[in-house]
Automatic annotation (TrEMBL):
Record's keyword terms, sorted: Membrane, Transmembrane, Transmembrane helix
Chain ranges passing through the membrane: 74-98, 118-134, 141-159, 165-183, 195-216, 228-245, 252-270, 290-309
Superkingdom per UniProt: Bacteria
Protein species of origin: Actinoplanes cyaneus
Name of the featured protein: Uncharacterized protein
UniProt key word Transmembrane: yes
Keyword Transmembrane belongs to the record: yes
Coiled coil: none
Length: 324
């Protein structure tokens, strides 16, 4: 590759990635054909013309619409990954409870109630994922709201058994809020099954299927429950992400980890600052004020997620219309 070609390729990077994928080689051929033999660098006028044209394409309404579409696609896939991850973990909890009953292992909550909790959560989260895979993002957002109620109900139930520990489960309702906001934002995105492709759908199915065997992982010397219910699904989600279109792939790599980590950071910060020193022991009962104080981050997440979704829709609505 000559110095001239390398320089032209660098200059062409000012164009959007989607534009380069289609036109870069053709444009490069024209530029090289129009250059006199022996030239090592483009003429300043040619370089400026490329930069001007590239910026015009990058900031055109159509390019902004494509960018908005990529963000919506990324929001839909990231929310789908979260739903499958939590739903798969709930499935693993169900199988673990069944295995404990079969082997007569004593548990905190036995009987039907011990299965009803994770089973209801698994059904709720997997219903959200099914709607997303079908491209029914409005339905997925509504089902995420139902899932939030299920998670809050579960939280309330466990407060009666292990009050102080149960209130540390606020991360999951926070995820339900973020997933609902993501699907509301992604209401015009392409169906997740189309974005993932056949291979991606296979990996998504595998991510949930392996959770069925998580309960038996601890019986093997080289596996733990989290290996099959958390880490392997995350690896499969990474595989799906690698196979996406570059604009969507880059955004999923930002949105999905952000959705997982932001509530954790918020709750940890809240616990270490606002709740620090409120108690130094595990109480037998928890007052309403302590419950409200501990679960207040859910309100923060809800307000932030709603504000972001509303601002995103207001800022990109016109561009999406152009794209469509």
């Amino acid at each position: 590759m000559t110095t001239l070609e390398k320089t032209y390729r660098r200059l062409l990077r000012v164009y959007p990635a989607a534009h380069r994928e289609v036109y870069q080689e053709e444009m490069l051929g024209v530029l090289l054909a129009g250059s006199p033999p022996g030239r090592r660098l483009p003429r300043p006028a040619d370089a400026l013309d490329l930069l001007r044209a590239g910026l015009a394409v990058r900031f055109s309404r159509e390019a902004r619409a494509d960018c908005s579409t990529a963000w919506r696609d990324a929001a839909a896939l990231s929310a789908l990954f979260v739903a499958l991850l939590i739903g798969g973990f709930a499935v693993a909890t169900v199988t673990e409870a069944i295995a404990d009953r079969l082997h007569h292992v004593p548990t905190t909550l036995g009987g039907a109630a011990g299965l009803a909790d994770p089973a209801s959560r698994a059904v709720a989260w997997l219903a959200v994922a099914a709607a997303a895979l079908a491209g029914r993002y409005r339905a997925a957002a509504v089902l995420s709201g139902v899932t939030l109620l299920v998670e809050l109900g579960t939280l309330t139930f466990w407060v009666g058994l292990t009050p102080w520990a149960a209130m540390r489960l606020a991360w999951v309702p926070s995820m339900a809020i973020l997933v609902a906001a993501a699907f509301a934002t992604a209401r015009t995105a392409r169906p997740a099954r189309v974005l993932a492709g056949r291979l991606g759908l296979g990996m998504l199915a595998a991510a949930v299927s392996v959770s069925l065997f998580a309960a038996w992982a601890e019986r093997l010397p080289f596996l733990q429950v989290d290996d099959l219910s958390v880490w392997l699904p995350l690896a499969l989600f990474a595989g799906v992400t690698i196979g996406l279109e570059p604009p969507v792939r880059r955004r999923v790599a930002l949105v999905f980890p952000g959705m997982l980590l932001a509530p954790i950071v918020l709750l940890q910060t809240w616990d270490s600052t606002v709740l620090a020193g409120t108690t130094t022991w595990v109480p037998e009962t928890v007052t309403a004020g302590e419950v409200a104080l501990t679960l207040a981050p859910l309100g923060i997440v809800a307000v932030a997620a709603a504000g972001f979704a509303r601002r995103f829709a207001a800022g990109t609505g016109g561009h999406v219309k152009v794209h469509e």
